[in-house]
């Protein structure tokens, strides 16, 4: 019989007893009614089975009847228990969700906390690019940035020294290029022109490019002082530095060629590092700023990527081509090899020394008598600003572990509030929270506040003006961008304008959040590195131009307001960190001169309104088109360089002889063509035309606004009819 | 262009209201049917597109979202004029944001075209009644005063969000149709459903208006 096989090891009675006790024990399973029901079923099953088994075992009729009575008695008792337990279970089951929910919430909170903690640690370990003076440290430990910012905070004199030095070096900078004319107002685009042209050649003429690369591959390994022809008498210092560097950088890493290149420049650093720090440090590549390696970093060896022409300018080719970084002066600049100089190295060493003497770990407390603490004690009449700021703190880097938690949000709140009290006029403006947040990633609260003050200070980068009520400063900056866009990327400028894509729509965020909307923190922080050291905010516009230059090929292929604007906003977010790095390299080494910026400033002051009030017109584009046609003739885009760098391109300084002279000549001719009227004349013409049509355009801008993204007749008619339509009152179907 | 096949109407809407009332959340809910509490502050202006089917017509809504802080008005007000419909949003738990609606109305009078379709939106209606600062009746009264439609919405709970946008769009469509029925229907007769997004769910949450 089946029941025999199913027997549990124990006797039937024992079984029954066990089952009988299960009733009272049942409430333990109260979390689930289902479980209760299930065990009840099992219980009844067992009783039946026990009864059947007993009847078979006990042949004696008396015994049988007794046992049957016993069984039924036990069963009844157990049944009662079961019913009781079931009731309890039901009650508990009803109460359970709340209990469970509470427990689960606590559990989730703890898991989330741990997740954030892990994420924070992970993020803190993520290597970043740090711009130290003239040099980019790729994939450096984040500590380096903290130290840099602290050193700059504590030694404002270093910032001053850097500025002086940078100005001097900038004057020397064009010297490597034969035909460059130092001191000339527009001389800075010059180095870019040959690079860009040569790179284009290379892109077009692969065999020669490859050959050149081959040569370069052989030349690459020696120290850069020998490789780069224009470098002077630094061999001794370089040798020393290299020795130190090699000692410290035991791990060459995957990109040893990059490392080779970087070591001599960065050699002093490991010497200053604590041993543990040095170990981390050595694991990371260090490479000089603005170099070819900056563009292509991890990937194939430097030698394969970079071509060095006879001037010593290093050009990056294949990857740039893959990215369609076409030959604009704006991008080419990022691929230059900056000249080596003793002064530069000297300065960097001083800065590094200052950085390494920063106490570590950074103390997070601050004296109660400091300004920050004092400001925070003010509470009277601050409810409004408190309210405004607190609305934003949880909407600033909400995904970042540092600001996903109360603690971080409170620190951000305090920094912003202290600033609002410190600067009553600027007070708090949306966008500030992102900048302050960026600082808090790398600096404790009080220094972050000081750094924030410095960034906003009128005697510093003066970001403050962007945030002032009315946002006039921002608007001016956007017009400046418009002006520079016209000068440097005339094709793109015309294209965007024709489609109604104005900078206010895409660049407001860039400027107000220091690019942290929508770019990665590391991108923005390098911009802050530069601003803190330059003590001005020119890099903001330079970055905008570099970004746009990099986007240009994509954007030119698109039509329509929505498509363009979406592409502008979405595409760069998807770029690899290498490409973003390249863009910043280009921004840092931007060919934009102080003169360019001054021109832009002046133009804006004198009423340049940009496309803020410009509608698509043919007249506005005509002069640009002339330049474009000249450029298009060559199949390249020298016209972009042409606007800025025509004088140099007209006398191509020392193109690699034999490598595509035709293309070079064509490029030069194109550039010369653009130059034909003289760039100042062109600019003047543009300005004049603009003035002339401004009034007309001002009226048209209303049209433009009405027709955002339109361009289709149907849409236009909708827009036009709206006024009249609406006037005719509510529709019958309303 | 081929684009015109995608829709019959293009309607441009603008979201305004104080900072933090949930304009971006409303838009996100409507355009992408999602809600997240980890939003970032809207800096400047932004827009999203959504195509919906209203009364058998494909309507492309181009919806502009603006920064709420006062000082951004100098930038955002330039975009009032192009708007056919404006959603004035306040937070039902924030009295000040409701009071400020009058200021926003002044802005509209100044910068928008006279006959722009307006709708008053009290957002965050999912919040606990104890937190509510503006009763439904006050919202309705204000809307009546300015002769506009009124909705209480919750972007979080997805209450009434579609209704608001559909209502505004329908109003605008009717006005367009009335004047230029030909032009209105010339856009391709409902063609291009291949390109639309979700669309067409007019009944979704109509029962929930003024919830809580």
Automatic annotation (TrEMBL), chain A:
Instruction: Please name the SUPFAM superfamilies in this protein's record.
Output: Ypt/Rab-GAP domain of gyp1p
> What GO MF terms are annotated?
GTPase activator activity; small GTPase binding
Q: Where is this region: Disordered?
A: 1-30, 171-271, 288-312, 630-663, 712-734
Locations of Acidic residues compositional bias?
Answer: 1-22
Query: Residue ranges under compositional bias (Low complexity)?
Result: 188-214, 238-259
The Rab-GAP TBC domain extends over 139-535
Which domain of life, per UniProt? Eukaryota
Q: Which SMART domains match?
A: TBC (SM00164)
Task: Kindly give the InterPro entries that the UniProt entry links to this protein.
Answer: Rab-GAP-TBC_dom, Rab-GAP_TBC_sf, Rab_GAP_TBC_domain
PANTHER family listed in its UniProt record: GTPASE ACTIVATING PROTEIN AND CENTROSOME-ASSOCIATED, ISOFORM B, RAB GTPASE-ACTIVATING PROTEIN 1-LIKE
The name on file for this protein is: TBC domain-containing
Which organism does this record belong to? Micractinium conductrix
Q: Write the lineage as a comma-separated list.
A: Eukaryota, Viridiplantae, Chlorophyta, core chlorophytes, Trebouxiophyceae
Automatic annotation (TrEMBL), chain B:
Per its record, what are the GO molecular function terms? GTP binding; GTPase activity
Q: Where is this region: Disordered?
A: 180-212
Q: Which Pfam families match?
A: Ras (PF00071)
Q: How does it sit in the membrane?
A: Lipid-anchor
Assign the protein's first listed, main location to one coarse class: membrane
Where it sits in the cell: the answer is: Cell membrane
Q: CDD domains recorded for this chain?
A: Rab8_Rab10_Rab13_like
**Gene Ontology terms: cellular component:** plasma membrane
User: Coiled coil where?
Assistant: none
Cross-referenced InterPro entries: P-loop_NTPase (IPR027417), Small_GTP-bd (IPR005225), Small_GTPase (IPR001806), Small_GTPase_Rab (IPR050305)
For this UniProt record, the keywords arranged alphabetically read as follows:
Cell membrane, GTP-binding, Lipoprotein, Membrane, Nucleotide-binding, Prenylation
The family database entries (PANTHER family) matched by this protein are listed as: LD44762P (PTHR47980)
Q: Which family does it belong to?
A: Belongs to the small GTPase superfamily. Rab family.
Protein name, please?
Rab8 -family small GTPase
Give the organism, scientific name. Micractinium conductrix
Lineage of origin: Eukaryota, Viridiplantae, Chlorophyta, core chlorophytes, Trebouxiophyceae
């Amino acid at each position: 019989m089946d029941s025999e096989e199913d027997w549990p090891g124990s006797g039937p009675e024992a079984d029954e007893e066990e089952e009988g006790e299960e009733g009272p024990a049942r409430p333990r399973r109260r979390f689930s009614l289902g479980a209760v029901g299930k065990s009840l079923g099992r219980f009844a099953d067992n009783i039946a089975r026990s009864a059947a088994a007993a009847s078979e075992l006990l042949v004696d009729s008396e015994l049988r009847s007794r046992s049957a009575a016993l069984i039924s008695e036990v069963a009844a008792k157990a049944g009662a228990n079961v019913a009781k337990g079931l009731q309890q279970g039901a009650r508990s089951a009803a109460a359970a969700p709340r209990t469970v929910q509470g427990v689960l919430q606590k559990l989730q909170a703890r898991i989330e906390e741990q997740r954030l903690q892990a994420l924070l640690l992970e993020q803190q370990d993520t290597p970043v690019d740090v711009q130290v003076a003239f040099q980019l440290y790729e994939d450096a430990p984040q500590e380096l940035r903290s130290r840099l910012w602290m050193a700059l905070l504590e030694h404002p004199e270093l910032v001053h020294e850097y500025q002086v030095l940078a100005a001097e070096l900038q004057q020397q900078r064009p010297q490597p290029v034969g035909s460059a004319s130092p001191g000339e107002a527009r001389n800075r685009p010059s180095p870019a022109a040959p690079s860009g042209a040569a790179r284009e050649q290379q892109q077009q003429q692969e065999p020669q490019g490859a050959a050149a690369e081959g040569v370069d591959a052989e030349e690459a390994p020696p120290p850069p002082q020998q490789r780069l022809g224009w470098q002077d008498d630094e061999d001794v210092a370089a040798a020393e530095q290299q020795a130190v560097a090699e000692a410290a950088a035991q791990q060459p890493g995957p990109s040893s060629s990059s490392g080779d290149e970087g070591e001599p420049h960065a050699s002093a650093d490991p010497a200053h590092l604590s041993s543990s720090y040095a170990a981390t440090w050595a694991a990371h590549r260090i490479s000089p700023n603005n170099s070819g390696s900056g563009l292509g970093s991890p990937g194939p060896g430097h030698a394969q990527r970079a071509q060095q022409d006879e001037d010593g300018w290093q050009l990056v080719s294949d990857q740039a081509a893959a990215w369609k970084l076409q030959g604009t002066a704006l991008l080419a600049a990022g691929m230059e090899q900056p000249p080596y100089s003793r002064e530069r190295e000297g300065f960097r060493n001083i800065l590094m020394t200052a950085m390494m003497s920063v106490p570590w770990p950074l103390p997070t407390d601050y004296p109660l008598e400091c300004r920050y603490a004092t400001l925070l004690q003010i509470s009277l009449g601050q409810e409004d600003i408190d309210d405004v700021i607190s609305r934003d703190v949880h909407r600033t880097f909400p995904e970042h572990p540092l600001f996903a938690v109360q603690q971080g949000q409170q620190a951000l709140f305090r920094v912003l509030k202290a600033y609002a009290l410190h600067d009553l006029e600027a007070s708090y403006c949306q966008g500030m929270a992102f900048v302050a947040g960026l600082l808090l990633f790398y600096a404790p609260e009080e220094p972050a506040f000081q750094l924030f003050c410095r960034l906003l200070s009128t005697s510093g980068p003066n970001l403050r003006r962007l945030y002032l009520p009315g946002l006039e400063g921002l608007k001016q900056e956007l017009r400046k961008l418009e002006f520079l866009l016209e000068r440097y990327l005339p094709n793109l400028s015309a294209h965007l304008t024709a489609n109604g894509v104005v900078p206010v729509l895409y660049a407001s965020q860039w400027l107000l959040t220091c690019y942290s909307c929508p770019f990665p923190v590391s991108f923005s922080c390098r911009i802050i590195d530069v601003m803190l050291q330059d003590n001005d905010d020119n890099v903001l516009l330079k970055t905008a131009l570099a970004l746009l230059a990099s986007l240009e090929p994509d954007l030119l292929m698109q039509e329509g307001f929505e498509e363009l604007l979406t592409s502008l906003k979405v595409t760069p977010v998807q770029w690899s960190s290498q490409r973003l790095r390249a863009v910043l390299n280009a921004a840092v080494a931007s060919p934009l001169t102080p003169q360019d910026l001054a021109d832009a400033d002046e133009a804006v002051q004198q009423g340049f309104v940009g496309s803020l009030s410009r509608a698509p017109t043919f007249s506005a584009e005509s002069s640009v088109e002339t330049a474009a046609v000249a450029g298009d003739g060559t199949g390249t885009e020298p016209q972009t360089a042409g606007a800025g760098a025509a004088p140099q391109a007209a006398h191509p300084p020392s193109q690699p002889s034999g490598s595509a002279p035709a293309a070079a000549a064509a490029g030069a001719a194109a550039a010369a063509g653009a130059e034909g009227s003289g760039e100042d004349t062109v600019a003047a013409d543009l300005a004049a035309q603009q003035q002339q049509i401004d009034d007309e355009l001002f009226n048209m801008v209303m049209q433009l606004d009405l027709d955002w993204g339109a361009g289709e007749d149907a849409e236009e008619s909708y827009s036009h009819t709206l006024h009249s339509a609406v006037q005719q009152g509510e529709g019958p179907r309303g | 262009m081929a684009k015109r096949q995608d829709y019959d109407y293009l309607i441009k809407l603008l979201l305004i209201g104080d900072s933090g009332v949930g304009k971006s959340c409303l838009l996100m809910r409507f355009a992408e049917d999602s809600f997240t509490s980890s939003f970032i502050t809207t800096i400047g202006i932004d827009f999203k597109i959504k195509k919906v089917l209203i009364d058998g017509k494909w309507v492309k809504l181009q919806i502009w979202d603006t920064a709420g802080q006062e000082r951004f008005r100098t930038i955002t007000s330039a975009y009032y004029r192009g708007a056919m419909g404006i959603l004035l949003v306040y937070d039902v738990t924030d009295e000040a944001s409701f009071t400020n609606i009058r200021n926003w109305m002044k802005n509209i009078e100044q910068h928008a075209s006279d006959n722009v379709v307006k709708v008053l939106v009290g957002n965050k209606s999912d919040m606990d009644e104890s937190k509510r600062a503006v009763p439904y009746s006050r919202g309705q009264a204000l809307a009546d005063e300015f002769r506009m439609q009124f909705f209480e919405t919750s972007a979080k709970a997805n209450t009434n969000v579609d209704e608001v946008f559909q209502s505004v769009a329908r109003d605008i469509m009717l006005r367009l149709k009335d004047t230029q029925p030909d032009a209105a229907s010339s856009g391709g007769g409902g063609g291009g459903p291949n390109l639309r997004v979700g669309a067409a769910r007019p009944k979704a949450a109509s029962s929930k208006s003024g919830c809580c």
